[in-house]
Each structure stands twice: as structure tokens, then as C-alpha cells.
Amino acid sequence: MKLGIFAKTFSGAEPEGVLASVAATGFSATQYNMACSGLPSMPDEISSDVAAAIHLAATRHGVEIVALSGTYNMIHPDPDVRALGLKRLEVLAAAASSLPTRLITLCTGTRDAEDQWRGHPDNETPQAWDDLLAAMEIAVGIAERYDVELGVEPELANVINSAVKARRLIDQIGSPRVKIVFDPANLFETARLDQQRDIVSSAIDLLADDIVMGHAKDRTATGDFTTAGKGVLDYPWYLQRLKEIGFSGALVTHGLAAGEAAGVAAFLGRTLAGIEA
């Protein structure tokens, strides 16, 4: 596994400085956000000069761009917002080959109109599911045109809030373009160690063939998100389970301060070394 970090962890609106920080703190991969190029995360346009600057900086600093952030609310209650998100997703997909990366991460969304990471009771309705399917069908068409993959991440606050729903989505869409970004901390809030392992292990088994990237953050004992290695998640066990399914992609950390990055790289590196010894 290669170690990665969200590029947006580091301040700056130029890829040269941001990707230098990625490399300097011990990471060889990044999930890139267009905000690191001084653009909106989901821009209306990405010029060839912008794409070339990202590619050049990544090459210079030896950082692999393993994914682009393409998160917007795919089931926003306003159809116009959903349509704009799909339009901007195509902009990202068109630029992906120039960066280069083949994975764009998504947010399956929520009926909450203000915050795409906040849950809503209507996420469980058949209409929410139908809206997601409709959006995913269009997204898959975009992915096919530009030869990219789409990373869906099960997240408690979103319509895809479990591994079971993620499996159902992949099976219903029926496209090899739909992949899984796996974050165990998104699958529970509070749980005893045995419960945590049951939830995460069953999810890994259910989604194993489609996991293309792992995420690394953590949960406190009271259920809040925290920095990887500072919470209750059993990291040696989690990484061992990824190893057992043959996962060899990027493990990308996020939800941390820039000043914590080097420490998290060291922690994850030690943990990986321990399971590979």
C-alpha cells in the first residue's frame, strides 16, 4: 500500500507548494482537490495550463495523484443543483487524463439542502434512491466517455450509508466504472471493539472486489471524528484486513491538521511495516 493524504490538508492555491508539502511530510500519493489550484473544488472550467501545472508539480515532487475530489450532493432536493453537479463532474473527468488520474471520488448525497455531509430522514425514501440511480447512470456515462472510474464512499450521513447499500448500488448500476473508497470510520459512530471489527470486516468482505482506495481517519470514544491513530479504530487489524483481500492501492488520510501530517505518515508507515513483517 502507498501512503496518501488529502492535498487540501495543506494551505495554498498553487500545486507546487501544496504537493511539496505532501512529499515533505512523508506521503507519496494524494487525493487532489482543485481548490489547491485556486479554483472551486468543482470548477466550471479547468484550463490546460492548470492541468499542466498540477502534473508538473506532481512529477517534480514524486507524488502520485491517485484521485480527484468530485464531491457534490448527488441527491440534493433541488434538481438544478444536481444537474450543475453533473456538469462540473464532466469538467473534472475531462481533465483527469492530463493530471493524470483515473479515479474521481463522489458524494452520494443527502436530502439536506445545506450540508452534503449531514443526514436527513428522507435519505431512506425510495425517491432518494431513484434520484441517486438516475444521477449515477449519467455519471457512469461521463466516466465511460473519459475513461475514468467513480469512487463511492459509504458514509452514515449519506444515502449510501452502509456497505450493503453500496453493494446494492454497484449491482444495480452494473458498471465496472463504479468503485469503492473504503473508510471504516464512516461505518460506525460508537462501538465496542468486537462490534467495530464485525461491522468493518463484513463491509470489507462484501465490497472487497471493488475497493480501489482506503481512507484513514479515526473516531473518538464518544463518536466524533479525529486524526488517524488518535482514536478507537484498530488500525493494525484494519490494515491487515485490507492486506488479506489483496488490496495494494493508496491509503489516504484526511481530517487532520497540516501540522499532524508527518506524525500520521509515521504512524501509518509503522503500522503497515508491522503487518508486512
* Topology as a string of helices (H) and strands (E): EHEHEHEHEHEHEEEHEH
Percent helix among the residues? 40-55%
Structural class category: alpha/beta
- Main sheet summary: 8 strands, parallel, barrel
Termini gap? 14 Å
Quick summary:
With 277 residues, the protein is α/β, with parallel strands linked by helices.
Task: Kindly describe this structure.
β6 (178-182), α6 and β7 (211-216) form a beta-alpha-beta unit. The chain has helices spanning 15-24, 48-61, 79-96, 126-146, 163-173, 193-207, 235-244, 261-276; strands at residues 2-6, 29-32, 64-73, 103-107, 149-152, 178-182, 211-216, 218-219, 225-226, 250-253. It has an eight-stranded parallel barrel, surrounded by five helices. Strands 8-9 form a two-stranded antiparallel ribbon. It is globular and about 50 Å long. 42% of the residues lie in helices and 17% in strands. α6 runs parallel beside α7 and α7 (235-244) crosses α8 (261-276). The protein has 277 residues and is α/β, with parallel strands linked by helices. It has one domain (2-276): Divalent-metal-dependent TIM barrel enzymes (TIM Barrel, Alpha-Beta Barrel), CATH 3.20.20.150. It has eight helices and ten strands.
